[in-house]
Every structure is written in structure tokens, then in C-alpha cells.
Amino acid sequence: MIHLNVNGAERQVDVDPSTPLLYVLRDDLKLHAAKFGCGLGQCGACTVLVDGEAAFSCITPVALLAGRRVTTVEGLGTAETPGVVQQAFIAEQAAQCGYCIPGMIARAEALLRQTTTPSEALLRTAMQPSLCRCGTHMRILRAVRRAAKAMGGGVTDPAEPTS
Ligand code: FES
Ligand code: FES
Predict the structure, then answer these.
(1) Which residue ranges does UniProt annotate as crossing the membrane (predicted)?
(2) pLDDT along the chain (163 residues), means of 10
(3) pLDDT value at position 130?
């Protein structure tokens, strides 16, 4: 039995220790925000927060997570009461198909927990590991700039004017 802390709740799962966290989240805990894209740490669709930092859950064995805090997008807000980053993604209509968006939101959250006043270069570097097959990257960047501002900060040298 493996003990996990997911979205603030203690959870126990009876799985092989080498099972990727993504499978445990989706199949055992029925948390479906994080998505399977490549399974190889190359697309970011599966990104979650581990102790506040972005992590590819598809290549993270669940055994490594004992005593660490896992946060998925389900832990950042709900459809009724979206969190700050979610609100910004909605306001900027940053999703097309939406498949990459939970990973994008997790990655943006990790950045904005580190600093709410990132430079444009840091913003782009932080978001770079997540890919959007629909090509909404510019809207996604706008959403993260908006979220930074909503948190009382803002991108210091935004590539586009922020409203
Ligand atoms: S599914 Fe994990 S990085 Fe692509
Ligand atoms: S909105 Fe479709 S993959 Fe990003």
C-alpha cells in the first residue's frame, strides 16, 4: 500500500511502486484533469504539482511520492469557483480542444508560486515544456500574464500589452 497526499487529502493506493503517478491519479483516484499525451515526458499534458513544482506525472513512479504533496488542477479550483489561474485561462479563452490546458495551468501555477513578477523570458522558459497541439500558445501566455497581474504582480516586460 502506498500513501499519498493528493490535493490536501491522504490517499492510499494498492499499486506496483513503479506505476506512473498519472495512472494512479486517473485510474485509481479518478482525478482526470492530468492527461496522457506522450507518456515520455515530452508534451506536458500530464503535468501536476509536486511540492509546488511542475512535474511530468507520466514518468514519475508513484513510489517516489511518499511524504510529498501532489496537486492536480482539481485541487486549484472547481467549475463553480475557479482558481486565479483558471479564471485567467477562461478570460483569455486560452483553450481550443483543451487537452493541454490542465498541464498548462499546473505549470503556470508552479511559476506563479515561485514569483508573481516573472520576466517575459522566464514566463516562456517556464511554459516551454508544455506543448499545445492546437497552437494556442499565445493565448496561453496571455492568460499567465493575466493571472500574474491578478495575483498582484505582473510580467515585468510583457511581449504584448496587458489589459
Ligand atoms: S504525457 Fe507526460 S509529458 Fe506527455
Ligand atoms: S488547446 Fe488543444 S492541445 Fe492545447
Answers:
(1) none
(2) 96 97 98 98 98 98 95 97 98 97 98 98 98 96 98 94 66
(3) 97
Burial class (CB in 10 A: 0-12, 13-18, 19+), 30: exposed
Q: Is residue 118 part of a domain?
A: yes
Task: Determine what percent of the chain falls in helix, strand and coil, rounding each to the nearest 5.
Answer: 40, 15, 50
Q: Which domain holds residue 137?
A: 84-151
Atom of ligand 2 nearest to the CA of 94: 1
Examine the domain organization and report whether 70 and 130 are in the same domain: no
Task: Tell me the whole-structure pTM to 2 decimals.
Answer: 0.96
Which residues surround ligand 1 with Cβ inside 6 Å?
A: 36-39, 41-46, 56, 58
Distance 136 CA to ligand 2 centre (A): 7
Identify the residue whose C-alpha is closest to ligand 2 atom 4: 132
